[in-house]
Amino acid sequence: MLLAQKLSGNILDILTKAALAVLTAVMLVMLVQHELAARNSATVLDSREQELHKIQQRMELDSKIFHEVAVFFEERRYRQAMEKLKEVQTMHPDSSTALLWQARLQYEEGMVAESLADYRQAVDSEPGFIDRKSPLFVGKRIKEKVDESQEKLQREMQLKPNDMSVQKALDDLLYLKRRLAGGCE
Amino acid sequence: MARLKLPDLAVSTGIVLGAGAVVLTLLGNPTNSGICISCFLENLAGSLQMHDSLRMSYVRPELLGFLLGSFVTAKKMRRFRVTGGSSPLIRFLLGLFMIVGCGIFIGCPIKMILRLAAGDLTAIAALLGLMFGIWLGGRYIRAGSVLDRDKELPQINGYILPGIGLLLLLFVLLKPSFIVQGATGPGAQHANLWISLAVGLLIGGMAQRSGLCITGGLRNFFLFKEKTLLWGIVAAFASAFFVSLISGQFNLGFYDQPGAHPDNLWTFLAMVLVGLAAVIVDGCPFRQLIKAGQGDVDAGLTCFGMLTGAAFVVSWQLRSTSAGPEFNGKIATLAGLIFCLTVVLAYRRKSAAAR
């Protein structure tokens, strides 16, 4: 009786171990086959490549959409650039690149507070603008404008210490400085 | 290492932790975030597709290093003891809420030290909050609010989390298609895989030997005036400060600090939550990983809670941005504090009834 129990116990253990080995082997083979098939397929991109591909497509589209705005901007014809930008914005209301152009144009027109608010909105909707790893990165240019704005705002603060719009602009400026400093956001 | 006394070990672990974190930043990790358990768990959760922010997705080798370094050291030093069974669901939820608190501050207690060492004065509110939370937790411990005693469990239980760590390491190396990684954002900011892993393994092994824990060090000081681990924390701060200073990363001030926000009240409250929860579960998020590696199944369950919390923090916006804490995060912080106080109250009644 005892021997029979021992034998059946041993057989159960042996069968369990054999099943374990077979299941592990099958799982590994399936996994390897699946990964090899995925890697051999030219159409499949990994998550990083997909993300970069999307950004690249977006940049190409943006360069077409904002071409005339960019030309006017280069020629310092800011009024015409703004008018063209408004046209583009009606067709592409969700474009964060439009916000970036708006911020640039407003800064050149001397509207510092409005420019900072737009930079903030642009960065919020597209963090890639201040991300060195992103092809969209324009952080250095934004930082330049933010630093220049700081001096202007400090003068404004001395002249109008209780002005809410200056306070709001300062809030936007400090926010942008924190974002430009980096971190894991 | 085995010949070092515990205070020396705590200090040397602190030095390696602080300096290692800043060096990892120099090698590619996000600014002031060379080592941050909550940020790293958010990245891991993203990589496992537990949330859909690709920018926050990367399997941080440092995390795996902490876990496996602790496991290997514990096995080698015959300190691998498999225990568990103490209030598992409570620990799971406390782990989750700890990460919510970290999400509101934007960083775990280690990152708080790194931020302070880099001159970020907004982290002072976090330090005060953490100290208050730990002090409060200490008061409850003295009053008898302690979770149930753990018990010895079959060995297999202790191998599960290190096994998962090993599996994740394989994923990092083999890069299967279901593990995603961001090409931009924090997920793309990382040091070389092997350097990150080596630093993680070294710190994990040393922390297993020394028992270094940010909240534990402060708790021991408040409760027993015991300074061993406290010196480790001071050493971590000092080494991070020194390396930040010589590498030009030091920037003293309240403004233009990376990964920071100006809402000091919510920073304080969030770190009260982290401190209190950490005292109840007996260890900060970093310590939970180390304990999980040395066979503590309860800590392993807390780690699962932390990982779940990290996924919710991102997908439910239970966190702060540079603009300040999100509404959902404020509510979650308050819910976490309510949960912690309910737990200590329940266990206080239990211990009073037992008397």
Q: What separation lies between the terminal Cα atoms of chain B?
A: 43 Å
Quote the beta fraction of chain A: under 5%
Q: Report the average pLDDT across residues of chain A.
A: 90
What's the tally of helices of chain A?
8
Low-confidence stretches of chain B: none
Shape of chain B: globular
Rg of Cα set of chain B: 19 Å
What attributes does this structure have?
heterodimer, A: 185 residues, mainly alpha, elongated, B: 355 residues, two-stranded antiparallel sheet, two-stranded antiparallel ribbon
Helices and strands in order, then pairings?
The complex is a heterodimer of chains A (185) and B (355).
Chain A: H1 2-40, H2 47-65, H3 67-74, H4 78-91, H5 96-108, H6 112-125, H7 139-159, H8 164-180
Chain B: H1 6-26, H2 37-47, H3 61-76, E1 83-84, H4 88-105, H5 109-117, H6 123-142, E2 151-152, H7 156-174, H8 193-210, H9 214-224, H10 228-246, H11 264-281, H12 285-293, H13 297-315, E3 320-321, E4 324-325, H14 327-354
Antiparallel strand pairs in B: 1-2, 3-4
Helix pairs in contact in B: 1-8, 1-10, 2-13, 3-7, 3-8, 3-12, 4-11, 4-13, 4-14, 5-6, 5-10, 6-9, 6-11, 8-12, 9-10, 11-14, 12-13
Describe the structure.
The complex is a heterodimer of chains A (185) and B (355). Chain A has 185 residues and is mainly α. Helix content of chain A is 78%, strand content 0%. Chain A is built from eight helices and no strands. The model of chain A has no long low-confidence stretch (mean pLDDT 90). In chain B, 66% of the residues lie in helices and 2% in strands. Chain B has 355 residues and is mainly α. Chain B has a two-stranded antiparallel ribbon with strand order 1-2. Chain B has a two-stranded antiparallel ribbon with strand order 3-4. In chain B, helix 2 packs across helix 13 and helix 5 crosses helix 10. The model of chain B has no long low-confidence stretch (mean pLDDT 95). At the A-B interface, helix 1, helix 2 and helix 8 of A face loops of B.
